[in-house]
User: Fold Shikimate kinase from Nesterenkonia natronophila.
Amino acid sequence: MNNIVLIGPMGSGKSTVGAVLARRLGRPHVDTDQFFVARHGPIREYFAVHGEEAFRAAEEQLVAELLDSPRPSVVSLGGGSVTSAATRELLKTQFVVMLDVTEAQAKARIGDAATRPVLTAGTSAPPIERWKNIYAEREPLYRECADLIVSAAEATIEDRARHIIEAMRRER
Assistant:
């Protein structure tokens, strides 16, 4: 089986659920944001120096490399990864899970958004307002790519991981 790729908006739990899912399946967990930081430095600083367009291009390249790994993994993508047409094309060969989240859950998880430059760059609006606009723009892309959507109602990490594993078993 190919990679299991977690997509969804900021604050949906991709990194956290990905780590639990990988442990339960005995697979490596790959978080694209962590790999980006290891290669390019802090995302906030990269954003400030190079801008969002350069960040997205570097992110697209990194995602392509990680999805091409010979060992099936659980891969947690950054919230904006699906804005790349090339990334969406690559996702067609993976098992893709959208983790959804409510506005209230996202607000609690993103806090002041200090480490999330896409929520703070060039705006004085509260981070949750920017989050809502971004979610509205990206939600159709998440749904287009997803083989499975895990609802916000499945709020615990374990519930989400269990739901994904059960869905994968039904797919076989």
Summary: DSSP finds eight helices and five strands in the chain.
